[in-house]
Amino acid sequence: MEVVLLDETSLRIKSKHTNFVIDPFGQLPKTPTDGVIILSADVIDLSKVTDYRVVVKSPGEYEIGGVKISGIDVDGVTVYGLTIDNIDVLLAKASSVTKVSEKLKEYDIAIFNVDAEINQTVVTALEPRVVVLYGEKASEAAKALGKENAEKVQKFTAAKDKLPEEMQVILL
Question: What predicted TM-score, i.e. pTM, was given to this entire model?
Answer without folding.
Answer: 0.93
